[in-house]
């Protein structure tokens, strides 16, 4: 189903006015996200957005392959997106795959089936490329970008977490695990996400204190070197991805998701901790009734929230800005630059 925002744009109006529309499809471990937009004066104008939780990477750590039923679900949704592109008169479709497609043994089979059913080619991008596109998309949405440097971005997905440190004034330290694309950019990608943590550590509903403590210890170990890699004063943190936007929606008591309202919402670590404590006290069904929390995310929101909390605690960051912009917008910008 299309979002309410999409109803503001008639298909005929879009075709008549815009001749350079680009669609981007982001195929993630948990969610497939979609954007139709165009460039205007160096910025992305969003015409319509949509998303669907297909959980393509379900049980990937256990089986090494993409879930068969969710492959079918994902392809059905991509077919719908292809038809929507045709209705909008989209000139170019960019499709990218991230963590699940990077890791699965049957990714090529999935790419072949999508191509056969839709004609769409999917590019599987690296974690570093994912981070780079996400940064481009977020920077394009910031009206006072120069006033919030130095900037740290964290993108918490279903299967991986990317971080990017950007500061035009200082040269950052090198991260030996990832290559800097310019002297003021430092980035990294770790194969830790909300879906992976949920499947690996949570066996009870609600999670037991021991399960939660095990996740915390795991994350503290994985993020232990962040304070060395990211040593910059007066750091501003921006978080993107389903976990961050869901936390913002919960904080805003949102009945229906609206990315334009969520974008650039600020949340303190104290508030995130309060939301986390509320979540861990509830069963799955009860969490699914919380305003702002989509039912499909009720099982993974707790580990996702823990990723953000531990990330902030390790770096002693007290507030985060949530971005609804990211990889989708960055892909449109990147297409025009190339």
From TrEMBL:
Single annotated GO MF: pyrophosphatase activity
Domain Ppx/GppA phosphatase N-terminal as annotated: residue spans: 45-333
Source domain of life: Bacteria
Taxonomic source organism: Dissulfurispira thermophila
Protein name in the entry: Bifunctional 3-dehydroquinate synthase/phosphatase
């Amino acid at each position: 189903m299309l979002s309410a925002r999409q109803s503001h744009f008639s298909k005929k109006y879009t075709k008549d006015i815009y001749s350079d529309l680009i669609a981007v499809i982001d195929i993630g471990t948990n969610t497939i996200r979609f954007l139709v937009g165009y460039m205007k004066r160096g910025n992305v104008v969003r015409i319509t957005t949509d998303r669907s939780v297909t959980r393509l990477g379900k049980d990937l750590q256990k089986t090494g392959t993409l879930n068969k039923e969710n492959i079918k679900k994902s392809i059905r949704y991509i077919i719908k997106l292809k038809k929507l592109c045709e209705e909008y008169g989209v000139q170019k479709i960019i499709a990218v795959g991230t963590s699940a497609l990077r890791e699965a043994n049957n990714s090529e089979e999935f790419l072949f089936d999508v191509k056969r059913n839709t004609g769409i080619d999917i590019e599987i991008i690296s974690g570093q490329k994912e981070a780079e596109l996400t940064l481009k998309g977020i920077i394009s949405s910031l009206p006072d970008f120069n006033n919030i440097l130095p900037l740290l971005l964290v993108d918490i997905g279903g299967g991986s977490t990317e971080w990017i440190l950007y500061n035009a004034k200082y040269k950052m330290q090198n991260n030996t695990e990832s290559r800097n694309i310019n002297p003021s950019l430092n980035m990294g990608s770790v194969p830790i996400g909300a879906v992976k943590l949920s499947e690996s550590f949570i066996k009870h509903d609600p999670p037991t204190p021991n399960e939660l403590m095990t996740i915390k210890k795991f994350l503290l170990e994985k993020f232990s070197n962040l304070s060395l890699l990211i040593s910059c004063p007066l750091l501003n943190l921006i978080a993107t991805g389903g976990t961050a936007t869901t936390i913002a929606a919960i904080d805003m008591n949102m009945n229906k998701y609206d990315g334009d309202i969520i974008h650039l919402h600020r949340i303190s670590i104290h508030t995130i901790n309060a939301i986390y404590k509320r979540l861990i006290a509830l069963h799955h069904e009860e969490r699914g009734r919380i305003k702002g929390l989509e039912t499909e995310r009720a099982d993974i929101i707790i580990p996702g929230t823990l990723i953000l909390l531990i990330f902030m605690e390790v770096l002693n960051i007290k507030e985060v800005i949530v971005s609804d912009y990211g990889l989708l917008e960055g892909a449109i910008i990147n297409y025009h630059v190339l």
